[in-house]
Specification:
The protein is an all-alpha fold. Helices cover 76% and strands 0% of the residues. It has nine helices and no strands. The protein is globular, with a radius of gyration of 20 Å. The termini are far apart.
Length: 232
């Protein structure tokens, strides 16, 4: 089972990598952009097929629990990806060029907005499942039990990533892109291609860290509340 889970992780991280590559539109030609996007959507479809039982249990999920954060995240990313797919079809000049459709400037604005929200929500999705991922990978790689030195090192790394990620959100103007604010700032790929990807990986990491520790805090707060209520 662990090996199967690792295969799923590889597919999921590949989908995230394709989303990141698709963001570098001005580094690619349009055909490559569309083909990368199609590959990403195929992997996302497989991801949801693997997790179809989660969607089937969704109507019975209890609100007000830490899992509600995961539910909200999954529904949000599904809606965002749906908007991204629809606008992709409307704007296509290669893969779906045979369709008599034309989205125009509005579809383009929605497409860009959905792409960046999908990127942020994918990071949140990853962060919310990070504990499970690390636990399974630890068993698969036969990593020993947690120790103080390793825990401290990981937390220091997370803090460093957070600083880099916050800096990268400013450099890349992510706040403007998440509210569809017009901007003429485009990354100069001739000057630095690797910088574009490093900045976005840092943004992915800081959003994932924020989601992970938010989930940890919610579980801790829920445990404290239960203990308090039991003592009353």
């Amino acid at each position: 089972m662990n090996a199967f889970f690792v295969i799923r992780l590889v597919l999921d991280f590949t989908a995230a990598g394709l989303l990141l590559a698709a963001l570098a539109y001005w580094w690619l030609d349009n055909m490559s952009h569309e083909l990368i996007g199609m590959g990403m959507f195929i992997l996302l479809l497989s991801h949801n097929v693997f997790n179809r039982r989660w969607w089937a249990r969704l109507p019975k999920a209890a609100p007000g629990k830490p899992s509600f954060l995961t539910i909200a995240s999954n529904i949000s990313i599904a809606a965002t990806m749906a908007a991204l797919l629809v606008t992709s079809v409307l704007m296509s000049r290669t893969v779906f060029a045979f369709l008599p459709l034309s989205g125009g400037p509005t579809a383009r604005e929605i497409h860009i907005l959905a792409a960046y929200w999908a990127f942020i929500l994918a990071a949140v999705h990853l962060g919310l499942h990070w504990s499970v991922i690390m636990a399974v990978m630890g068993r698969f790689l036969r990593v020993g039990p947690p120790n103080a030195i390793r825990t401290a090192s990981l937390r220091a790394t997370a803090a460093a990533i957070a600083v880099c990620g916050i800096h990268s959100t400013v450099v890349m103007g992510i706040a403007d892109r998440l509210v569809a604010r017009p901007s003429m700032d485009f990354w100069d790929f001739q000057e630095s291609t690797i910088g574009f990807f490093l900045h976005h990986i840092a943004i992915l990491a800081v959003c994932g860290c924020a989601a992970h520790y938010a989930a940890v805090w919610l579980r801790w707060a829920g445990g404290v509340r239960r203990v308090t209520n039991a003592g009353e």
